[in-house]
Amino acid sequence: MIATTIEQGLIYAIMALGVYITYKILDVPDLSVDGTFPLGAALTALYISKGVNPYIVLVLTFLVGAIAGVITGIIHVKLKVRDLLAGIIVMTGLYSINLRIAGRANVAFYNQDTIFTLFPLNKILPEQLVEYERVILLAIIVIILKLLLDLYLKTKSGYLLRATGSNKTLITSLGKDSGLVKIVGLGLANGFASLAGGICAQQQKFFDISMGTGTVVIGLASVIIGISVFKYITFMKHTTSVVIGSILYKACISLAIAKITIKASASDLNLITAILFLIILVITKDKKRRVRQNG
Amino acid sequence: MKRKQFVKSMMAVGVAVTLFGTMLGCSKNSENPLQSVESGGSNETNNSVDTNKTYKIGIGQFAQHSSLDNCKEGFLQGLASAGIKEGENLIIYYDNANSDTGLTAPIIEKYIAEEVDLICAIATPMAQTAYGSTMDKDIPVIYTAITDPVEAELAKEDGGSVGNITGTSDKLPVEEQLKMIRQVLPEAKTVGILYTTSEVNSISAIEEYKEKASKYGLEIVESAINTSADVAMAAKDLAGKVDCITNLTDNTVVSALPVVLEAAKKENIPVFGSEIEQVKKGCLASVGIDYVELGKKTGEMAAKILTGETVASQLNFEIIADGEFYGNTAVAEQLGIELPKDLLDNAAEVFQTIEK
Q: Is residue B91 within 8 angstroms of chain A, CB to CB?
């Protein structure tokens, strides 16, 4: 149960890192992730059924997702459509495209190789760690992605990305185009979301058109929970907080499910989850107020 | 100051860790008493219910609506008829994913962690997750309310199992429904069907309807929707174009049935249901399957697997072959239609009122 929680948390953490780029760095609310997450899953269903190497599929899902994000960016920046609406347009359009890609609303591929079945560590791992084999693989992927993102944010392009969100005038005074930076950021973010959707499909071994619904909510919750909980641990990078935030989010849901045993009604699941979130956020809120009083 | 803040942050982390701890703890707590019960029933005999053994079953239901709820009820009845009763020798874990595909995995993982003897998955995404997650474990999965298990990759073309999984299908008696529509509305030319693009079940049913409609001199007019919010517009549009509407087992459309009925009422055309609950609520008639019966059949299959009489991989999936006729005379009166006498005489149930 704990292994699965961490697994799920790590998969959604990749998407949450994308949401972190748009929501926290660029200050753009991007709803297209609700479409790019299942886009990655649909592509995965298509390519895996055709026998393409699952690791290559990962790269493909990232690239195609990034293209979708760039389209959101172009609609927003070049066609001057409001950011929220640009996301809604792309998300809505992707629904049909996803159906086209996968061929139908639900595609299963139980007996195909995935990144998990091909994981070379399978044979090396001691027996007691076999249960955590998927967690280990996912952790490796997430750490690599996180480090790459950290590195990117330190490059010139990364600095521009951060400046676009916090100080637009600076970008203009540097003679740079903040629109282009936004397009790059949205592309990157949706590449992450699509990659997460692809990995999610590889893990559950099927694609379902409805799996994107609510993705952006999970992403936002993970970012906010992660960053508020670890706000005062200064040596901890935001990207790390977001990853842990995502695992915490999934832990809340798992805990709610675990609590519903024989007596409690299944209808209470979401309420229990909501209360758990509230508890986490209230603890951090309390801190903030006291700090203000001290100041 | 800084140290204080750090301490507070650590408190927050502490809460997080406690969350995990509780998770681990509560799954362990609930396991312990069960284990002691189980160890009492070590002498298992084949083909009969071992009265000393307590069975643990996880029932994962994908969405909440009356057909699927009936499936679950029937499933418990089916088990009970084989001597496996809740409160006596059966412990049920029941969860509902509320149509959220992201919730199916943690629900199934809970059952695996609780070491259940069998998982009952209601509706397609739940069954797919259950099968995917238990492939390398020794937990049989039994599914119900799946229109096309072959399409969902849960069964082979010949009906055989693909693994440690079997169950029942709620495939619609399409041909009988068309025949009934012809009988009730001899003048009708077009039949409208609303369906959701995200539901595989509906898409395979639409194909079958289109294929067979011409045999009865009917033409199918389909209208696709994406979300529950689209139902009102699509139903209004469709109702203006057709002589009657017939429902599939489409979860989104069935959940929004009142909206469909309202649109049809304005055009004074009847809506045919796909099962009993819809007829109760205002559909004119239906040749449908009884989901309680379907659940019962599933429960009986589950009992055979639990008692060791057979294994899931050896059982073909089953369907309920004959649809039953359900009619609603109150609706017929409203529309000024008379339901044919021979249908009423052979009906499984006829309702005289419309359930509010």
A: yes
User: In CATH terms, are B53-170+293-319 and B174-288+323-351 the same topology?
Assistant: yes
Pick B53-170+293-319's CATH classification: 3.90.1150.10, 3.40.50.2300, 2.60.40.10, 3.40.50.300. 3.40.50.2300
Q: Minimal Cα–Cα distance from A217 to chain B, Å?
A: 12
CB contact under 8 A, B129 and A204: yes
Question: What is the full per-residue pLDDT of chain A (295 aa) written as tens digits?
Answer: 688 889 999 999 999 999 999 999 998 889 999 999 999 999 999 999 999 999 999 999 999 999 999 999 999 999 999 999 999 999 999 999 999 999 888 888 888 889 988 877 767 777 777 778 889 999 999 999 999 999 999 999 999 998 888 888 888 888 888 899 999 999 999 999 999 999 999 988 899 888 888 899 999 999 999 998 888 888 889 999 999 999 999 988 888 887 765 556 667 777 877 888 888 878 776 554 455 544 4
Q: What is the b/e burial string over A72-88, where b = at least 16 CB atoms within 10 angstroms of the residue's CB?
A: bbbbbbeeebebeebbb
Considering CB atoms only, which of B96, B153, B163 is closest to A266? Answer: B96
Is the pTM for the entire model greater than 0.80?
no
DSSP string, B147-209: S-TTTTTSB-TTS-BSSSEEEEE----HHHHHHHHHHH-TT--EEEEEEETT-HHHHHHHHHH
Q: Which of B92, B98, B151 lies closest to A269 in CB terms?
A: B98
CATH tag for B174-288+323-351 (out of 3.40.640.10, 3.40.630.30, 3.40.50.2300, 3.40.718.10):
3.40.50.2300
Domain boundaries, chain B: 53-170+293-319, 174-288+323-351
Facing residue for A258 by CB, picked from B26, B128, B198: B26
